[in-house]
Design brief:
152 residues; alpha/beta; Glutaredoxin; 29% helix
């Protein structure tokens, strides 16, 4: 189980355009690495659109926003196009990154239990260490949660 202060697990995952992204690509930058269950679903759309609507403020604060789900590159392109998302979405179809960050596990939805991605955001500092883990994501106010962490 990852905790604040740990070195963030490295990754090599392709984005919506098939470009490989690695943690080392972001050395010297702060990252909001947000894991979400599924493209084009209500909660994930609300969360991603909140980040989109506050993207300028996040960039001014020096944050690179990167979304991660197990959806395909093609599905990510549809999600980005439909909602004009200005940031990278990683297609972790083999769930290596999802498992490395420990966000795959039991969930409950409408009374049913199943395994899936638990909505979690990792704030990673410029040296690649986890500064903060947000495991109680407020989909409608997620950018504010991130910005509050940076301002404290």
């Amino acid at each position: 189980m990852l905790k604040e202060g740990d070195k963030a697990p490295d990754f090599g995952v392709k984005d919506q355009d098939g470009r490989l992204h690695q943690l080392s690509d972001y050395k010297g930058k702060k990252i909001a690495l947000y894991f979400y269950p599924k493209d084009l679903t209500p909660g994930c759309t609300t969360q991603s659109c909140n980040l989109r609507d506050n993207y300028t403020d996040l960039k001014k604060a020096g944050i690179e926003v990167i979304g991660v789900s197990a959806d395909t590159e093609k599905k990510h392109v549809q999600f980005i196009d439909k909602h004009q998302l200005p940031f990278t979405l990683l297609a972790d179809t083999d769930k290596k990154l999802i498992n490395a960050y420990g966000v795959w596990g039991p969930k409950k939805f409408m009374g049913k239990e199943f395994d899936g991605i638990n909505r979690t955001t990792f704030i990673i500092d410029e040296q690649g260490f986890i500064k903060k883990i947000i495991d109680k994501v407020e989909t409608k106010n997620h950018a504010e949660q991130i910005l509050n962490i940076l301002n404290n």
